[in-house]
Amino acid sequence: DTGVSQDPRHKITKRGQNVTFRCDPISEHNRLYWYRQTLGQGPEFLTYFQNEAQLEKSRLLSDRFSAERPKGSFSTLEIQRTEQGDSAMYLCASSELGRPSSSYNEQFFGPGTRLTVL
Amino acid sequence: AQTVTQSQPEMSVQEAETVTLSCTYDTSESDYYLFWYKQPPSRQMILVIRQEAYKQQNATENRFSVNFQKAAKSFSLKISDSQLGDAAMYFCAYRDHLTQGGSEKLVFGKGTKLTVNP
């Protein structure tokens, strides 16, 4: 296993279209995170999963955004009715569950999916 | 809410010299983690160094070290013997310590672009 992978790496779409991104975490990592990074900014947290359960969602995750992790392995992030403001890099990260669960667990990042909405 | 501020949008350093990147943060928590992440151009983000707030000793990883001033809420990164491969965006990040509840999410600053001149 070489790390977190994301697909596609680049996506260009027209405003109003739906897009879906996929993230494959490192094997046996049961935590998976989504972040969004706009130009000139640091990543901003969107949501995270522990196994298949979505444990936290940011207010940035509007009704047009939905994330799933149906079998606790890969995750998808869907954006409906895309807007130009959705143009950004979407980053996925994964981590192990720390032992004990409250301890530090490094988040390993994928290469990101760059979305351009025309 | 926790915030992270990086006041230096860009920095440059001569190869083999030392450079310090600044970061301040705000939190009401007494225990937490602080990180420096490196994001090379068109490559994925990797962890450079982390500091646990309850540890007074500053973290060191080879040529990278931090100056953690808890009372001042300051967390700077020093890169010694700078190399061309150090050129990247550097992000300071904060995370709650989960023994106090809190969130798994990373809160990032806006980043500092480091240029290394040969």
Which secondary structure elements does this structure contain, and how are they paired or packed?
The complex is a heterodimer of chains A (118) and B (118).
Chain A lengths: L4 E3 L2 E4 L5 E6 L6 E7 L6 E7 L2 E5 L7 E4 L6 E5 L8 E8 L12 E2 L3 E5 L1
Chain B lengths: L2 E3 L4 E5 L4 E3 L2 E3 L5 E8 L6 E7 L7 E2 L2 E6 L4 E6 L8 E9 L10 E2 L3 E6 L1
Parallel strand pairs in B: 2-12
Antiparallel strand pairs in B: 1-4, 3-9, 5-6, 5-10, 7-8, 8-9, 10-11, 10-12
What does this molecule look like?
The complex is a heterodimer of chains A (118) and B (118). With 118 residues, chain A is mainly beta. Chain A is 0% helix and 47% strand. Chain A is built from no helices and eleven strands. In chain A, the strands form two sheets. In chain A, strands 2, 4, 5, 6, 9, 10 and 11 form a seven-stranded mixed beta sheet that branches. In chain A, strands 1-3-8-7 form a four-stranded antiparallel beta sheet, with no helix packed on it. In chain A, strand 7 (65-68) and strand 8 form a beta hairpin. The model of chain A has no long low-confidence stretch (mean pLDDT 92). Chain B is mainly β and 118 residues long. Helix content of chain B is 0%, strand content 51%. Chain B is built from no helices and twelve strands. Chain B has strands at 3-5, 10-14, 19-21, 24-26, 32-39, 46-52, 60-61, 64-69, 74-79, 88-96, 107-108, 112-117. In chain B, strands 2, 5, 6, 10, 11 and 12 form a six-stranded mixed beta sheet that branches. In chain B, strands 3-9-8-7 form a four-stranded antiparallel beta sheet, with no helix packed on it. In chain B, strand 8 (64-69) and strand 9 (74-79) form a beta hairpin. Chain B is globular and about 45 Å long. The mean pLDDT of chain B is 93. Classes of the chains: A mainly beta (118), B mainly beta (118).
